[in-house]
Amino acid sequence: MKKCLVSLLAVSAGLLLGAPTAMAASAAPLTQVKVLKVESPGCGFESIDEGQERTRCDHSGPNIKVYVLEVGYGRAAQVGLDGFVVNGTRTPVCAYDNGNLTECTVGRRTVGYLYVFDLAGKQEGTFTFRNTSINAPGNTLSTQLYIK
After folding, report:
1. Regions of the chain short of the pLDDT cut 70
2. Domains in the chain, please, with CATH?
3. What angle do CA 104, 129, 91 make, to 5 degrees?
4. Chain mean position to CA 120
5. Which of 5, 63, 83, 121 has the greatest CB tally within 10 Å of its CB?
6. What pTM does this model have?
7. Are 71 and 112 in contact (CB under 8 A)?
């Protein structure tokens, strides 16, 4: 109890004496989610255009990967292929002065994430990605793409 009181007094004194405090900006809400590319041994990388509903190339076969861009901060993405859960990784992305999204380096602000999902032997179907913002307005964004 005595230690807690001493710690509380030290923190209070620091605030009153103008000790520096760390301030952080609030996390940006989700503003965009989209499938960027689909990769497979048979087709290589296929870029996915805005509004495209299905792949042009026949990716069917093992080792299909799907690349999804999420701009803003979400709670917990829900991802699947025809209702089956799909696992993946995520890497932070940052905006540079020219507006391009790229991997983050020290001193740059994270603006979203690039997810890479491995379809783990699943060969075709409707890929879905959905997430909800971690803060106001609590919006939910989703995207889907039929992978053939």
Report:
1. 1-25, 96-99
2. 26-147 (2.60.40.2870)
3. 15
4. 20
5. 63
6. 0.79
7. yes
